[in-house]
Task: structure prediction
Amino acid sequence: MRKVTIFNSYSNQLEEFKPIQEGKASIYVCGPTVYSSPHIGNFRPVVTFDVLRRLLIALGYQVTFVSNYTDVDDKIIKRAKELGISEKELTEQVIEEFASLVKEVGSMLPDITPKPTVYMPQIIQYIDDLVKNGSAYARESGNVYFRISSVSDYGHLSGNTPESLNAGARIETADEKESPLDFALWKKTEEGIKWETPWCLGRPGWHTECCVMIDSIFREQNGLIDIHGGGFDLKFPHHENEIAQARAHNHNQLARYWMHNGFININNEKMSKSLGNVLLAKDVCKLYGGLAFRLMLLNAHYRAPVSFSDETILEAQKNVQKLKTAYKQLAVTLQVNGVDLASLKGEGEDAFFDAMCEDLNTPNALSIMYEETKVANQALRVRPLDLEKLGASFARLRDYFFVLGLTFDYPLLSKEDIDLYNRYNELKKEKRFEESDALRATLIEKGIL
Result:
C-alpha cells in the first residue's frame, strides 16, 4: 500500500502509519456531549477524520471508525430540567440532529456510535479493576479517584509534568484527593441519572468513558487502537487522563497514533459563549450549504486554525457551485456520447495522493483538484470533443471528490434522456428557440441541465 505519514501528537513528529493489523485501520474520535444543538466547532473533527477515513479506504484499508456520543453529563441534567423533559429524550433529540448534520457536511456516519449509558456495566467493572490493582482509590463519600502516581509518564502527550502541574494546582481541590492532580473516575450524585456501584449511587467521570468503550469494542486488540482523534482542546486533561487509565489497566497507551485538529475561529477571534460569537452548525448549513462549510474547512491544514468569515464561507460556496457544475457537465457530455461512466478508471493521480498521504495536506490536494477542474472545463469547450481526455478528468475528479468528501451527484441518463438532450441541441442549432426552450425546461426538471 501507498505510504501514509501522520503527525503523531504523542511523539510530536511525523510518523509512517503502520497499523496493528495489516490492511486494517481502527479509528476512534471523541464525539460531542449531547446536551444542545451542536456548534460549528463540533464539526472540525467530523470533517478531518472523515477525510482520513476516506483516504485509508481509497488506499485499500478496511477501516473500523468509531465515534461516541457522551450522554451522561452535568450539562445534560441541567438542560433537561430546563426543558422539562427526561435526559434520554434530550440526548436522543440532539443525537438525531447531530447525525443529520454529519451527513449534510458530506461525512459518513461512524461504523459504531457507542454511548456511556449502554456501556455502564463495563465502565463500573473497569473502575473496579483500577481500584483493585491500586491505580485508583475510593473515599468515604463514595467518590473514586485515579492515582496519577501509579503511572510513570503522566503528561507525556500534552508536554506537562506532574511537578509543573502541581505547582499550578489549587490546594483546596486536594481536600479529598491524595494529589490535586488525581481525577474522578466515579462521582456520587444527588440528581439525574445514576447507577448503583460498590462505592455509591452515582455516575462516571468523563475521562473514563472513552477508555472503556475502546477497551470493549477493540477487546481482541487488548484495547489498543491505531488512531485516536479529537480537537486540540482534548489533549489535556481528557486524552492525557485516558492514556493514564489505559496504562494502568491494559499496559498500553490506548492508541498508537494520536491526532488533534485545530480550532475554528470567527473572523480570526476565538469562538466562545463569552464573546457571543458561537455559530450553530444547523444555521451555517442552512445559510450556505454543508458542502460549502466542509470546503471552507479543507482550505486549511487540519492542524492549523481555520477562520470562519463572510469572505471564507462565500468563497467556498462559490467554489462548490463551480465544482458541481463542471462535474455534472462532464457526466452528461460523456453519457450522451456513449461513454459508460462506471468503466472509467482514474490515472495520473499520484500528486493528489502524495499530498493527502503527507499528513492530510488538503490545501495542496485542493489545488490539484481545482487544476483538474480547469482542464476539464477547457476540454468541454473544444470541438471535436476528446472523450478520452474528458473521461480521464471525470475519473480523477470522482476519486478526488470521494477522498475529500465532496459528495456531488450527477444524473444517470436513460436512452430517452439522451435523445431529449440531443434533440435540444439540434433545435438550438436550427434556431428553433421556442421548441428548444420547452425541451430545456424538461431537461432542467430532470436535473440534466
